[in-house]
Write a structure and sequence with these properties.
With 166 residues, the chain is an alpha+beta fold. The chain is built from 5 helices and 3 strands. The protein starts with a helix and ends with a strand.
Length: 166
C-alpha cells in the first residue's frame, strides 16, 4: 500500500463523514477518524525511529549526506539544526556574555534562542561550504570565547525525505 492509497482511504472516509445526516454524526465520525489516524501515526513512528537511526549509521558509514531511494525515487538524507541556549539555564549570565561578544542583537529582556540558533546555523553552513565538517570541536570554535560557559551549542541530526519529482 502506497501513501497515495492511504490518502485515498482517508479522503473516502472524509467524504463519507461529509454526507452524514446530522452534525453530531459528522463530528463523531471525524473525531473517530482523527483518533484512528493518530493511532496509526504512532505505529509508523515506532518503526520510523529505529529505521532513521539505521539510516544515519548507513550514511555515516558510506560517508555521504544523502542517498536516492531506488524504489520511490525519494532523496533520503540528513539535515542538521544547531540550537543555542543558555548553559545550565543561566539566562542572565548568557545575556551578559552575548552583549560582551557583540551579539546583543539577539538579546531583549531575555534572548531569542531561535534567532541565535539561526545565527550559528548560518556559521555552520559557511563551514560546510568551506569543506569543514561541523564536529563538536568546530561548534566550540564557532562560539566566541566570552560565551563559553554561558551558551551551549548542540547539533541535532535527523532524517529528511524529499518527495520524488514527477
Amino acid at each position: 500500500m502506497t501513501p497515495a492509497d492511504i490518502a485515498a482511504l482517508v479522503h473516502t472516509a472524509l467524504e463519507s463523514a461529509d454526507h452524514l445526516p446530522t452534525t453530531s454524526a459528522r463530528v463523531a465520525a471525524l473525531t473517530l477518524l482523527k483518533r484512528e489516524v493518530k493511532k496509526q501515526e504512532t505505529l509508523v513512528n515506532d518503526r520510523l525511529g529505529p529505521a532513521e537511526q539505521q539510516m544515519l549509521e548507513e550514511l555515516a558509514n558510506d560517508q555521504v549526506d544523502s542517498k536516492r531511494d531506488s524504489i520511490s525515487g525519494a532523496l533520503v538524507g540528513t539535515k542538521r539544526r544547531i540550537w543555542a541556549r543558555a548553559k545550565d539555564g543561566d539566562k542572565e549570565a548568557a545575556i551578559s556574555a552575548l552583549r560582551a561578544a557583540g551579539l546583543g542583537a539577539f538579546v531583549s529582556e531575555g534572548f531569542n534562542t531561535t534567532s541565535l540558533s539561526s545565527h550559528f546555523n548560518d556559521l555552520a553552513k559557511e563551514c560546510d561550504a568551506d569543506g569543514v565538517p561541523v564536529t563538536d570541536d568546530v561548534l566550540k570554535a564557532l562560539l566566541p570565547d566570552v560565551l563559553h560557559g554561558y551558551i551551549e551549542l548542540t547539533a541535532d541530526t535527523s532524517i529528511s525525505v524529499t518527495k520524488a519529482k514527477g
